[in-house]
Amino acid sequence: MEKRWDNDQTLIVNSEGELRKLFGKTHDLAQKKVQTELDHYAQELIARSPFLCLGTQNISGKADVSPRGDAAGFVKILDSRTIALPDRPGNNRLDSLNNIISNAAVGLIFIIPGFDDTLRVNGRAKLVTDADLLAQMSVNGKVPKIAVVVEIDTVFLHCAKAFRRSKLWDEKQHQDRQDMPSLVKMILDQTGDAPRGHDEQKKLDDELEQDYRSTMY
């Protein structure tokens, strides 16, 4: 596709004024719904949520978003202005955690299977190693090494339009994972390290599944 906006600056929106001309006024209720602490509705939604996305950025503004998931209630509500996320084992890239060290601003969106509406939380995060807090987040005797503690600035409910448009929970829309190669195969192809034969690929895929089972916590 020809990217005409690279050569024609009139095709790029550069100010809030230009943006508002396209979209008009914000609905009054959308302005009023923003809260500065967790009420009982927000707390219940967090308690029900087994999955969230954590948005971070480093000091220079390079952004990243990371999925976080566990059994419902894995995010601890410490008080009406503070929540804590256990950092479970991953690939040790530590993108989100490194970003938080240099830039505390974070954004979270809590998702609940079957719910089309979501909860958004914005605030400032810190990485905490308090043993008492981490002990509350242990699973099968395994304690996380660190917790992401978020001091809340704003929290608000988000409407269902994105989920309705995507039909995310509609089983008729679910795609067959077998239509694409395995995760390992795709990464190896991308890095130029693809195995030579089917048996070797299957062995690598099986090893990843075993890793999932043995290192979830």
From TrEMBL:
Record domain Pyridoxamine 5'-phosphate oxidase N-terminal: where: 41-157
Region described as Disordered: spans on this chain: 192-217
Biased composition range(s): Basic and acidic residues: 195-205
Alphabetical list of Gene3D superfamilies matching this protein: Electron Transport, Fmn-binding Protein, Chain A
Domain of life, source organism: Bacteria
Entries under PANTHER family matching the protein: FAD-BINDING, PUTATIVE (AFU_ORTHOLOGUE AFUA_6G07600)-RELATED
Protein name per UniProt: Pyridoxamine 5'-phosphate oxidase N-terminal domain-containing protein
